[in-house]
Structure formats: structure tokens, C-alpha cells
Amino acid sequence: xxxxxxxxxxxxxxxxxxxxxxxxxxxxxxxxxxxxxxxxxxxxxxxxxxxxxxxxxxxxxxxxxxxxxxxxxxxxxxxxxxxxxxxxxxxxxxxxxxxxxxxxxxxxxxxxxxxxxxxxxxxxxxxxxxxxxxxxxxxxxxxxxxxxxxxxxxxxxxxxxxxxxxxxxxxxxxxx
Amino acid sequence: xxxxxxxxxxxxxxxxxxxxxxxxxxxxxxxxxxxxxxxxxxxxxxxxxxxxxxxxxxxxxxxxxxxxxxxxxxxxxxxxxxxxxxxxxxxxxxxxxxxxxxxxxxxxxxxxxxxxxxxxxxxxxxxxxxxxxxxxxxxxxxxxxxxxxxxxxxxxxxxxxxxxxxxxxxxxxxxxxxxxxxxxxxxxxxxxxxxxxxxxxxxxxxxxxxxxxxxxxxxxxxxxxxxxxxxxxxxxxxxxxxxxxxxxxxxxxxxxxxxxxxxxxxxxxxxxxxxxxxxxxxxxxxxxxxxxxxxxxxxxxxxxxxxxxxxxxxxxxxxxxxxxxxxxxxxxxxxxxxxxxxxxxxxxxxxxxxxxxxxxxxxxxxxxxxxxxxxxxxxxxxxxxxxxxxxxxxxxxxxxxxxxxxxxxxxxxxxxxxxxxxxxxxxxxxxxxxxxxxxxxxxxxxxxxxxxxxxx
Lengths: 176, 456
Hints:
Chain A has helices at 14-26, 40-46, 53-78, 91-117, 146-159; strands at residues 5-11, 32-34, 138-144, 163-167. By secondary structure, chain A is α+β, with helices and mostly antiparallel strands. Chain B contains 17 helices and no strands. Chain B starts with a helix and ends in a 7-residue tail after the last helix. Chains A and B meet through strand 2, helix 2, helix 3 and helix 4 of A and helix 2, helix 6, helix 8 and helix 16 of B.
């Protein structure tokens, strides 16, 4: 079912936006939220759970440790020389390299997986975005049929929307 | 400062914060470019002297046996130390959800990045044959020769390059929402520049959800990293047998010193920039007060470390250690040592007084002394210990040459130039985080400027 209309509600306060999100979720309406701040309550209200970025950071960290082992132990075996009576594979100093590579790979995985899941870089503007949503207003964009628009608009107004704009939906728009 | 005298708005809105920060990014005037030109000249002089040193050899520096580590390595440790407060303020205090960090963390993070960049130059400057620097890294080669992973210098190469990468990533990731905000208000080439750095960020709930997780985990990874980096730097010394270096307390002692010097540098930069860029309504004395408390705490830890170090030497009755410490306190470098004690241990005690913590002039003076003291600490440890090693026939006295002095001056100019350019072209104060904690900013502004108001 193609949406006929896109409603973009603008909210001055975080709480109002959260109320609207909760109301929309209760009615099973799909929507997209814009926020100028990293609001934990808002992310919680959207109800999408924890980001999978954390799994990739774990994998990155583990691969860093394994790389550290490969680099230190591998090169020591390759040049198999006992120096100062110490074992060829001496773990205490090697742990430092493993630790540093764990942080390096974990950190880079965090950044790369964030780009992947947040769909960045994004060359096209996201439908419903307005410059104020990056600055001082919270926004909710809902793609819906003409028939539903009055009900959804009423829900947003009740939650405290200060303005609701009607825009043409874009067929290729992805849900965010 | 006309703008500073304007009545302060104690109830700023999101739009006020945006206006305040975007104003800093207005095109800079002639004085700014004169300042950049001045810094660039000093950097060019340092670059020319380094080039000469590469061509002629390390003989142009003051490095002579036994003092083969001196000013360059001091600068390296100093700048790595400066970098530490950035990660402390941006990562550790983020994990603790500290309220006052929001206004100053971007300052500290930016400082971290440029300080590590500056620090990273010094091991290269210190190398006689700089073109062989890549030998520190493991790379495939026909002789199967690899770096010795038991060497602290190799740990250092890994630690510092990881630190540089992670702090740059942390800074760039944190910048994304702010740069997107700046993009929406910018025109011309700036809009293109900000668009590239914002990666098309639009602040959707989904983007924030992943952003928050990424940022939290980066902070979680950066926290042990920051402690490990200066520990590894301290092991460059502590792993050696040299009296004055060979000590087990070096890691915590260096980490505390690094945070002390780093936070002192943040305050040293914030106070003048707050005045020059009219940021009094974004960075209040409440923020400075809290930064000063961190300085006070770390100063006390550093003082305790000095005492412990001395106690261990006395308790061990190791004759070499005792002689080294006698020389440190009362020898050639004695005046530098006592200036260090005043700078790092005595002057910061004034910060027990809340009035001193909130007086920007005194705070700045104390911080400059801390900066000097922390530079001297590294110099006294490095050059001082090498000067009086085991055998008196090998004792020596290091005197820096003009090359070393000008390269040191050039490193400060290089750091300040990069920092100044960043502060005028990218948001040096985080708009998103200030907005997130806007109630604390409002509270601090009321407390600061109108303490008698109800609720103030």
C-alpha cells in the first residue's frame, strides 16, 4: 500500500515528542523520529532494543586479540632465538600488544558498524527532515493514507505538536 | 570585552546554544590570521632546524653520552600526557555521566588529538636516521626480521598509534551531529565541507540508537586505553635498570601526572578562549571549578608519588638510587626539581579554596605553573637520571642546544596553530551535548551570575 501523504509533526519539547511516539506505537502506526539531541528516553520510547553495533565491537575486539597473538607469537616462532634466557614466547609483554590491538580493532569496528547500521554516508536527504530537527525541534514523520491522516494528526496534536506539515511522500523512502 | 558585559541569558534555549557556538565559526578576522602566521613561522623555523639535524646529524642537538635522551623525549612524554585529559574528560567522565563535562569535552578531545599528533613527531625527531622509523612496526620483509615485542619501545609504538587512531575516531564520531547542525546553517564551501564531515547525518531515532551504542562502547574502550598508554610510556623508563627510572610505581604515577598536566592545559586554553570568543554563557565558572578540582586531586596524587618515590629510595638504601636522588634534589638539576615541586605540588594547593577555583586570573596563573612543572618533571626524570647513572666516570650534564629549544617552541606553535584552526572552523563546544544537559547549564548560569535569585 503506497502512502498518500506524509505528516511531519514538530515538537518543542522532548517529553511531547516521547508522548507522541508512545501514542503512535500503541496505535501501530509506523513513523520516523528526528531529534537534535541524543535522548535516551526517546530512543527507549521507540522500542527498538539495543543496537547490534555492540556485537561487532565484541567481534572486533576478539579479532584484535587474535591478531595480537598471531603477530607476537608468530614472529617469535619465525625468528626462534632465546634472548636473555627468556622463553621464545613470553606472554607478559605480548599481552600489551594484544590489548592495544583489541582496543584498536574494537574501536574501528564500532565506527564502521555504526556507519553500516545508521546507513551513513547518506547522500539523499531523509524524507521529513527539516533543518530545525537538527537544531532545536523534535520531529515525527508519518507516511499514511489520506483517511488516517486526521486521526494521526490528532494524536500528535494531543501529545503537544506545535506544527504539523503535510508533505508528499517519496516512494523510495526507507523507514528509519 | 563588550560582549562579556552584556546581560547573561540565564535561561538559554537550544537556539541560543546554536547561535553561541555557530558564532565562533564565523569567518575569522585579520588578528586570527596574524596569529596563525606567527605560529606557522615558528613551525617553519623548527622544521628547518629538524631538516638540518637530519642532514648534519644529531650532533646539532645537545645529546651527548650519557644524556642520549633529553628534551625530545621529554617533549614526547609531555605531549602524550597533555593528551590524556581529553580522553579522561570525554570518555571516563562520559561513562560516569558527569554533568559538567558537556561544555568542555570537545576542547579536551581536540586537544588530545593534536597533542598526540605533536607527541608522535618527537620519537621521529629524536631518531638519528628517521628514514628507518618504520622498523618499529611489524611488516613482511625478506629476512623474516620482526620487531622485538619484548621491547617497551615497540609497546609504545603500538600504544601511541592506537591512541592516535582511537582518539581521532572518537573526536570525528562525536562531531557528526554537531557538524550536521553547522551544515544546515552554512553556505558556500563551508556547507560542502560540513556535509562531507556529517556523512549525511539527519538525527533520526534509528541513527541516534546506533550512535549512542557506538559512542558508549568507544568511551568504554578509550577508558582502559588512556590508562594503558601512559603506563606503557612510563615503562619506556621503568623497564630499564637505570637508577631513577627503574621503579614499579611509574605507571600510576605517570598516569596521574598525565591527567594533571592535561587538565591544566585544558584550563590554560579554555580561559583565554572563553574570553576571546565570548563563551561566558556556555562555559561558566562552574565548569572551570570542576576542572580545577580534577587538577587538585591529581596534584595531590602526584605529590604523594614524589614522596613515595623518595621513601622507596631511602628505604632500599640502594647506593646508586640514593646518589641519583641526591643529585636530583641538590645537584645541577636541583633548581628545576624544586620549581617542579612548587608548580605541581604547592601552588595547586591553593585550589582547595573555592574562590581561587572560580577566579580565572589566578586559575590561569596556577595552571601555567602546573604546565611548566609537569614539563620539568619529565625532564628531571629523563635527563637527570641519565646524568648520574651507575659509574661516576660516565656522569654528564645535559645542556639543550638552540635546535632543541626551537623545535620545542615549534611544537607548541604547531599544537596551538592546529587547535586555533579547529576552533574557528569546527564546533569547539558540543551543541548536542550542551542541549542534552541544558538544565545543568541553566542552573550553573543562574548560580554564576545571579546567585541570589530563587532557585539559584
